[in-house]
């Protein structure tokens, strides 16, 4: 029975080899990064997420951005499970979307405040706006309300203070210049400026169009992150409520809320995006 010992050796080697291969496959599987899909609007914040990904290297997590042209479509994609997180909207917009469409979303981190200012290609100051002029504002409820508040602060109109951060055109108490305040897609407002006196749109869109949201504005409403009036307009990272305690998503939020991200935002964007942590 001399063949038994060689046969046993072959079987042992084969078994060890199989175990080794299985272990190797498990190790490879363990080394595969976790991909987190984050929905954004435009590409103005890509730089921020590059740094977040650097912070996540030791966690073996990679954020993949998916860009949309409009926030409403971004929220639809998240509600349908195509995205893990979103990072483009402020509390007021999020709450309005939840109220209007029944989304089960939860903010898991506050990030920054972005300005919403007045722009024009026809005048250099709001004092030059004439009676009967047309001013464009965003056509979504929350940013339209915020734009009306900006016009109020600029002294062009007076809105009912009891309407909080969601006034509408019907809440305008005084409009001495009889301005025509019309709503338009925020992404098109800058292109429409040659046809109107002025317009108000989001800072990210302004930056994507090669303009400075503060320096190129004819009226700039100074932002104080500690002022409660700006709380509804703080941007947030959002998860589906069922995932609000997801450990992976918590690590993504933590990687965002780091000093190196804050410093990079301040250096890259100046006062365009103002961190709140």
Give an overview in words.
Belongs to the NlpA lipoprotein family. It is a single chain. With 277 residues, this protein is an alpha/beta fold. The protein folds into 2 domains: 127 residues, 3-Layer(aba) Sandwich (D-Maltodextrin-Binding Protein, domain 2), CATH 3.40.190.10; 107 residues, 3-Layer(aba) Sandwich (D-Maltodextrin-Binding Protein, domain 2). Helices cover 37% and strands 23% of the residues. A 6-stranded mixed sheet has the order 2-1-3-11-4-12, sandwiched between helices. 35% of the residues are buried.
Question: Layout of SSEs?
Answer:
Elements: H1 4-31, E1 34-41, H2 46-55, E2 61-68, H3 71-79, E3 85-90, H4 91-101, E4 105-113, E5 116-119, E6 134-138, H5 141-153, E7 158-159, E8 172-174, E9 180-184, H6 189-192, E10 198-202, H7 203-208, E11 234-240, H8 247-256, H9 259-269, E12 274-275
Parallel strand pairs: 1-2, 1-3, 6-9, 6-10
Antiparallel strand pairs: 3-11, 4-11, 4-12, 5-10, 7-8
């Amino acid at each position: 029975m001399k063949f038994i010992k060689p046969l046993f050796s072959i079987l042992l080697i084969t078994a060890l080899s199989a175990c080794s291969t299985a272990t190797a496959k498990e190790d490879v599987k363990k080394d595969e990064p976790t991909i987190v899909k984050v929905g954004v609007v435009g590409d103005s914040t890509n730089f921020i997420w590059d740094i977040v990904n650097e912070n996540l290297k030791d966690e073996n997590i990679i954020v993949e951005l998916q860009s949309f042209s409009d926030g409403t479509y971004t929220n639809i994609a998240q509600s349908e499970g195509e995205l893990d997180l979103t990072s483009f909207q402020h509390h007021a917009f999020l709450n309005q979307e939840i109220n209007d469409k029944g989304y089960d979303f939860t903010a898991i981190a506050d990030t920054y405040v972005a300005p919403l200012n007045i722009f024009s290609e026809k005048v250099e100051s709001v004092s030059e706006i004439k009676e009967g002029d047309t001013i464009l504002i965003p056509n979504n409820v929350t940013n339209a309300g915020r734009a009306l508040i900006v016009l109020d602060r600029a002294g062009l109109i007076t809105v009912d203070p009891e309407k909080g951060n969601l006034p509408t055109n019907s809440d305008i108490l005084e409009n001495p210049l009889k301005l025509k305040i019309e709503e338009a897609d925020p992404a098109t407002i800058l292109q429409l400026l040659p046809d109107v006196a002025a317009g108000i749109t989001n800072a990210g869109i302004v930056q994507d169009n090669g303009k400075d949201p503060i320096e190129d504005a004819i009226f700039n409403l100074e932002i104080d992150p500690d002022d409660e009036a700006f709380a509804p307009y703080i941007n947030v990272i959002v998860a589906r409520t069922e995932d609000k305690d997801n450990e992976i998503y918590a690590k993504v939020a933590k990687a965002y809320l780091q000093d190196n991200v804050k410093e990079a935002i301040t250096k890259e964007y100046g006062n365009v995006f103002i961190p709140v942590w």
